[in-house]
């Protein structure tokens, strides 16, 4: 049963190291160096999977990464490519898409109904009735391939890193290696990326080659080359941003390298193309390169009696390999001759006989095809190239490349090893030369960088590497599979073209040809050839389809990497965590939502004194002669006459009049102001001020420092707040006649110097906001708690703050306003000073004032006092939506529900009864109030 | 990921920058309503070379005017916005 | 009243991973100035007695150390946290979380840049210590713990 051959000259297996593994629940033995597929093939396994639609048995086709038939499940990992993945001891390998078993696949009955599975079958059949779609989906999913995912798979973090190679070479064959060597010798930092487990490209399974040994030695000898094997360049994006997936040497963890390459050299070689004829997917029908890999790398006999259909040297070499390995060759069919050819392959679970065009039928279990090459031009395509079909070579060739992308070796043309190496070497020098130019430009444009070294080197002319002539062989005389991944046959593409999908881009989407896991690498030219024949065009006229990243699949884990969104913490976060705060993420900040009972926190603040961590408030230090002019311009209200020691509320609108932010700004000195913004708007306002100063008011003297993180801000609120703070201040007089509402003082609090104290109050209570240098924030917080213990001081969280703000009717930008809410609609007309010469948003706000806002923000109270309509509940009139609730809470202070909402202007008249539609469908009446504030409308508590 | 060669910082990935749209000049406060509306809402949306405002928010925090080809993403000129634009 | 104690946002003063050491330098005094008192060019840093001055934006400088003498000075000691990565593995660790080209040609000793580190805008100064590569990172204080945790996690996996 074993198909393992005696030792081969260049084999990569270690016969002293057997590895046992499970296949389909049974133990097998392979060797170190085997891929999963080679180990199974050596054990005599011929059927590896069932095909996607028809559940036909499938075996080895390419024996490599891009083999469409070798997808297996390894333990909890689906879609493992058995032709590429190295065998590991104890690996639990199972087939995919085969139920109940590989041998008897219940779903292969699909074949009997093959005519139903014409292109568009799913679209046409499972659309109606619509109600059955979930059922269709569920049933069809059982029939689809793709392995299974174990939701209990442990979380692992995949590494990600950035790289800055001068020259990045995609492909480690002779040309790629040569390019890497010469580029490195020319001083370039090189990254050499190879898909296979070792360097060498097609040389690895050729006869032992001294050229390969020399190239490998030279790569090893260059410290400037970083070699990534078992890795793949999956995408080339703008400005040579190159994604490289690097895989572990023996295990499967993928990691992503994000490289900004100064020059990208694509040396991807060529990929052997299957031939389209009846039975071309039977196990035992293989490409010549698969046969060469199996025999030479892993010493596996691919069959026992072979027919070799060859149109090129690779087929001839495969025949020679078979002969040397002692495998019977029943027939060599020279496909270069027009009168010789393969008509069909016959067999059930595997190849049994081959019908030739001369009428003979030859028994064989192996049919080797060597009909030509596809150039993997994906990366060039992503760089803007439109490869051109060359009929004499029967393949597509690169056409016009941008300056920072070059192609080397087999993707360009054919030649001896020496010619390929010479081509790669010249490209490598040219690539290094271009990279050096780019690097010099970047060094010159980067003030911190070292001066670029003068001088350079003269690149050598790149030798011409013409493609060899090759007979155009795509489609045989019978119908066969074009796309093995998606089970698309030539006749499917033809009938789709006849249905009117006569553009290749439409046809491929309709039939899904080239859209499976192999993504067209094997089948795209065959698909184009079928489409050409069906539409009476030439292959050149059709051209290739568009290639997009990724070239090879990337696991989601590699894309996710170990990136985590950064979070912001206040200087008091650790205290909150250890004191039972329930955390809430607000923007990037982690904040305490409450400490157990937000209603109790509200009551305590209204009755005694509460403290809240408001450190996330945006804070901007503004100094200079022209700060007041800036404030006049960015705020809608007046600032010119704000006295030193005073605080004012300010409203900012954007140029379209929409509310942008609000906050208070204090004048701390003659030319020194301290602006606060909303927590979520801090960055936006900072950037906003910079934009005006840099682009419009360039001569103004304003020095701005964002100091949000420099101060812990603690709002001390409640009737006992003055008494509490009085215990901690020495040089600040808190008496009302000395420190009135909307005043600011700087001084020492709790022995901390340089604190800023603002007498403001969004809670509606007497309150002082202490801004303390952040490193002393925790000290201040603990000092307040200690000094206030007899006053009943207690912390309150965001929820209590929201309740108190709402009781006072203060809107929250972005909660009660939205992207269309202009200043007047927000009820802020009093803060919009249209008589100012200019300010941001003035013309649109003038228009709004003249025409009246379409909607207005109003306070609402439900008639049923205990009903709290959820935020975003609609305000309706008949079938029309006429507004919505933007904020709602049960007020512990008033014992009733309080709301803010936006309503159409004609409903905004105080006393109007509106109808709220609740999520349950019930409706609830509510009254529009005269003032936004529900509580202490005259603000007596605040000013006390 | 575009590469933007910042005149102050050198080559940087575009995720350090905030895109500010087509560069435009604010009309005077006494401009006609039509001029204002045009400034606020009309965009040329050219296919080809366009001067745009970008903000190097995670770098030097300077506003930049960048000439970029909207078809190819080629960038041919980057200047500090204080130098104005053509 | 107890003397106020400066609390750093960085949870550990020193983390040693062999090839790289991560040290909290948040307590250093930090200043922002608008005059080139130290004759340091944009993108560069300079060492002066006990101070380090650098510029990452035209017309602005950041100084670590004693309060600079002259011109407008804003104390940003509490605005920024500071940490230092030192050792032969420092660059490789940074390359995991920072897209800046840290090669000697682009980021030599005493180079200064503001860029993203672990997703956070950070002032990065290469300030080698006795010939050993060393990077000083300054970021907004509220992000410091998050960045520190990320660096520690990456260093532990490397």
Fraction of residues in helix of chain A? 10-25%
Instruction: State which percent range the strand residues of chain C make up.
Output: 35-45%
Structural class of chain C: alpha+beta
Count of individual beta strands of chain A: 48
Order of helices and strands of chain C: EEEEEEEEHEEEH
General shape of chain A: elongated
Strand proportion of chain A, as a percent range, falls in: 25-35%
Helix content of chain C: 10-25%
Q: How many H/I helices of chain C?
A: 2
> Based on CA inertia axes, which overall geometry of chain C fits?
globular
Tell me the structural class of chain A: alpha+beta
Query: What value does the average pLDDT of chain A take?
Result: 93
Strand order of the largest sheet of chain A: 39-40-41-38-32-42
| Rounded Rg of chain A | 37 Å
Q: In CATH, what is the class of chain C?
A: Alpha Beta
Radius of gyration of chain C: 15 Å
* Low-pLDDT ranges of chain A: none
Mean pLDDT value of chain C:
96
Task: Please render the helix and strand layout as text.
The complex is a heterotrimer of chains A (944), B (86) and C (158).
Chain A: E1 14-23, E2 26-32, H1 36-42, E3 49-50, E4 57-58, E5 71-74, E6 77-81, E7 92-95, H2 121-125, H3 133-143, E8 160-163, E9 167-170, H4 174-185, E10 190-193, H5 210-221, E11 225-228, E12 231-237, E13 241-247, E14 254-260, E15 263-266, E16 271-272, E17 285-287, H6 288-298, E18 305-310, H7 313-324, E19 328-334, E20 342-347, E21 351-356, E22 361-363, E23 366-370, E24 373-374, H8 378-382, E25 388-390, E26 395-397, E27 405-407, H9 417-444, E28 481-483, E29 488-489, H10 490-498, H11 504-511, H12 524-535, H13 539-542, H14 556-560, H15 573-578, E30 582-586, E31 589-594, H16 598-607, E32 610-613, E33 618-623, H17 627-634, E34 647-653, E35 659-669, E36 672-677, H18 682-695, E37 703-706, E38 711-717, H19 721-726, E39 744-749, E40 752-758, E41 767-773, H20 777-787, E42 794-795, H21 798-807, H22 842-851, E43 855-862, E44 874-877, E45 880-891, E46 896-904, E47 913-917, E48 923-928, H23 940-943
Parallel strand pairs in A: 1-7, 8-14, 9-10, 9-15, 10-11, 15-27, 17-23, 18-19, 18-23, 32-42
Antiparallel strand pairs in A: 1-2, 3-4, 5-6, 5-7, 12-13, 13-14, 16-24, 20-21, 21-22, 25-26, 28-29, 30-31, 32-38, 33-36, 33-37, 34-35, 35-36, 38-41, 39-40, 40-41, 43-46, 43-48, 44-45, 44-47, 45-46, 47-48
Helix pairs in contact in A: 4-5, 4-9, 6-7, 10-11, 10-12, 16-21
Chain B: E1 3-6, E2 10-13, E3 18-22, H1 33-41, E4 49-55, E5 63-69, E6 75-80
Antiparallel strand pairs in B: 1-2, 3-4, 4-5, 5-6
Chain C: E1 14-16, E2 21-24, E3 30-33, E4 45-48, E5 51-57, E6 60-64, E7 73-75, E8 80-86, H1 90-95, E9 112-117, E10 120-126, E11 134-140, H2 141-157
Antiparallel strand pairs in C: 1-2, 2-8, 3-6, 3-7, 4-5, 5-6, 8-11, 9-10, 10-11
């Amino acid at each position: 049963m074993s198909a393992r051959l005696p030792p081969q000259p260049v084999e990569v297996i270690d016969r002293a190291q057997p590895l046992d593994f499970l296949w389909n629940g049974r133990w097998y033995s392979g060797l170190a160096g085997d891929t999963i597929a080679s180990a199974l093939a050596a054990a005599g396994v011929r059927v590896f999977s069932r095909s996607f639609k028809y559940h036909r048995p499938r075996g080895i086709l390419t024996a490599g990464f891009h083999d469409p038939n070798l997808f297996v499940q390894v333990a909890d990992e689906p879609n493992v490519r058995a032709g590429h993945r190295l065998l590991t001891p104890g690996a639990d390998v199972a087939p995919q898409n085969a139920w109940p078993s590989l041998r008897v696949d219940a779903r292969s009955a699909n074949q009997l109904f093959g005519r139903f599975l014409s292109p568009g079958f799913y679209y046409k059949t499972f659309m109606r009735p619509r109600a059955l779609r979930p059922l269709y989906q569920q049933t069809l999913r059982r029939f689809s391939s793709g392995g299974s995912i174990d939701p209990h798979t442990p979380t692992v973090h995949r590494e990600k890193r950035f790289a800055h190679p001068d020259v990045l070479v995609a492909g480690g064959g002779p040309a790629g290696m040569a390019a890497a060597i010469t580029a490195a010798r020319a001083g370039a930092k090189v990254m050499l990326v190879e898909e296979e487990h070792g360097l060498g490209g097609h040389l690895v399974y050729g006869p032992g080659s001294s050229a390969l040994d020399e190239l490998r030695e030279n790569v090893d000898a260059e410290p400037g080359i970083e070699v990534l094997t078992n890795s793949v360049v999956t995408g080339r994006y703008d400005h040579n941003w190159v994604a490289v997936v690097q895989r572990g040497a023996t295990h499967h963890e993928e990691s992503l390298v994000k490289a900004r390459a100064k020059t990208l050299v694509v040396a991807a070689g060529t990929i052997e193309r299957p031939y389209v004829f009846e039975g071309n997917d039977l196990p035992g029908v293989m490409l010549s390169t698969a046969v060469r890999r199996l025999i030479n790398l892993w010493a596996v006999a691919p069959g026992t009696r072979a027919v070799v259909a060859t149109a090129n040297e690779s087929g001839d070499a495969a025949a020679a390999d078979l002969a040397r390995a002692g495998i019977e060759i029943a027939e060599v069919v020279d496909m270069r001759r027009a009168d010789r050819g393969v008509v069909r392959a016959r067999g059930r679970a595997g190849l049994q006989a081959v019908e030739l065009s001369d009428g003979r039928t030859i028994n064989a279990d192996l049919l080797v095809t060597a009909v030509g090459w596809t150039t993997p031009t994906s990366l060039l395509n992503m760089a803007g190239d439109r490869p051109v079909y060359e009929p004499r070579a029967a393949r597509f060739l690169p056409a016009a490349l941008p300056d920072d992308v070059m192609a080397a070796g087999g993707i360009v043309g054919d030649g001896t090893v020496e010619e390929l190496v010479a081509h790669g070497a010249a490209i490598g020098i040219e690539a290094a030369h271009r990279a050096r130019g780019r690097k010099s430009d970047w060094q010159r444009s980067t003030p911190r960088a070292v001066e670029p070294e003068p001088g350079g080197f003269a690149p050598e002319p790149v030798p011409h590497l013409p493609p060899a002539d090759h007979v155009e062989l795509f489609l045989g005389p019978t119908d066969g599979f074009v796309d093995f991944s998606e089970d698309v046959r030539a006749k499917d593409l033809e009938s789709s073209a006849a249905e009117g999908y006569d553009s290749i881009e439409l046809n491929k989407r309709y039939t899904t040809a080239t859209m499976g896991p192999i993504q067209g690498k094997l089948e795209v030219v065959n698909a184009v050839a079928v489409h050409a024949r069906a539409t009476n065009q030439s292959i050149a006229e059709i051209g290739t389809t568009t290639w997009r990243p990724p070239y090879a699949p990337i696991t989601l884990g590699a894309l996710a990497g170990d990136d985590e969104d950064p979070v912001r913490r206040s200087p008091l976060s650790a205290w909150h965590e250890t004191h039972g705060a329930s955390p809430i993420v607000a923007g990037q900040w982690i904040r305490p939502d409450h400490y157990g009972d937000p209603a109790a926190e509200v009551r305590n603040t209204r009755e005694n004194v509460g403290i809240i961590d408001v450190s996330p408030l945006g804070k901007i230090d503004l100094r200079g002669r022209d700060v007041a002019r800036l404030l006049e311009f960015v705020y809608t209200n007046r600032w010119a006459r704000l006295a030193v020691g005073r605080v004012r509320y300010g409203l900012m609108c954007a140029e379209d009049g929409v509310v942008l932010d609000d906050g208070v700004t204090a004048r701390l000195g003659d030319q020194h102001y301290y602006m606060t913004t909303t927590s979520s708007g801090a960055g936006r306002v900072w950037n906003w001020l910079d934009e005006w100063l840099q682009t419009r008011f360039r001569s103004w003297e304003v020095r701005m420092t964002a100091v949000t993180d420099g101060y812990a801000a603690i709002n001390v609120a409640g009737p006992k707040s003055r008494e509490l703070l009085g215990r901690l201040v020495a040089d600040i007089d808190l008496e009302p006649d000395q420190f009135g509402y909307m005043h600011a003082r700087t001084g020492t609090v709790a022995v901390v110097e340089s604190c800023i104290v603002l007498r403001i109050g969004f809670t509606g209570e007497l309150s002082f906001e202490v801004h303390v240098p952040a490193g002393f924030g925790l000290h201040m917080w603990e000092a307040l708690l200690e000094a206030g213990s007899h006053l009943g001081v207690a912390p309150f969280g965001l929820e209590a703050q929201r309740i108190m703000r709402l009781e006072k009717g203060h809107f929250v930008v972005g909660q009660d306003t939205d992207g269309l809410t202009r200043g007047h609609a927000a009820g802020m007309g009093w803060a919009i000073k249209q008589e100012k010469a200019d300010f941001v948003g003035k013309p649109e706000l003038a228009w709004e004032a003249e025409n009246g806002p379409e909607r207005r923000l109003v306070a609402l109270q439900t008639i049923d006092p205990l009903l709290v309509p959820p935020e975003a509940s609609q305000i309706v009139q008949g079938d029309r939506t006429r507004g919505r609730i933007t904020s709602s809470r049960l007020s512990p202070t008033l014992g009733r529900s309080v709301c803010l909402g936006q309503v159409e202007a004609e409903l905004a008249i105080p006393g109007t009864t509106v109808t709220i539609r609740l999520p349950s469908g019930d409706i609830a009446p509510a009254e529009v109030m005269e003032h936004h504030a529900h509580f202490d409308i005259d603000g007596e508590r605040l000013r006390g | 990921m575009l590469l933007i060669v910042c005149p102050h910082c050198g080559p940087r990935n575009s995720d350090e920058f905030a895109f500010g749209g087509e560069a435009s000049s604010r009309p005077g406060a006494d401009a006609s309503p039509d001029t204002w509306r045009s400034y606020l809402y009309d965009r040329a949306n050219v296919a080809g070379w366009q001067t745009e405002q970008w903000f190097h928010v995670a770098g030097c925090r300077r506003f930049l005017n960048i000439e970029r080809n909207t078809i190819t993403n080629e960038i041919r000129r980057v200047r500090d916005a204080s130098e104005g634009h053509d | 009243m107890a003397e106020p104690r400066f609390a750093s946002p960085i949870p550990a003063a020193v983390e040693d991973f062999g090839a790289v050491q991560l040290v909290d330098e948040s307590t250093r005094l930090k200043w922002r100035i608008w005059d080139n008192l130290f004759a340091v060019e944009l993108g560069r840093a300079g060492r002066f007695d006990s101070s380090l001055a650098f510029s990452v934006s035209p017309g602005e400088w950041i100084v670590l150390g004693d309060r600079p003498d002259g011109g407008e000075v804003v104390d940003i000691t509490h605005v920024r946290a500071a940490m230092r990565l030192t050792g032969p593995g420092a660059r490789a660790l940074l390359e995991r979380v920072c897209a800046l080209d840290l090669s000697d040609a682009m980021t030599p000793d005493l180079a200064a840049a503001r860029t993203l580190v672990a997703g956070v805008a950070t002032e990065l100064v290469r300030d080698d210590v006795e010939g050993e590569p060393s990077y000083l990172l300054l970021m907004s204080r509220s992000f410091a713990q998050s960045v520190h945790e990320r660096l520690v996690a990456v260093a532990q996996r490397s």
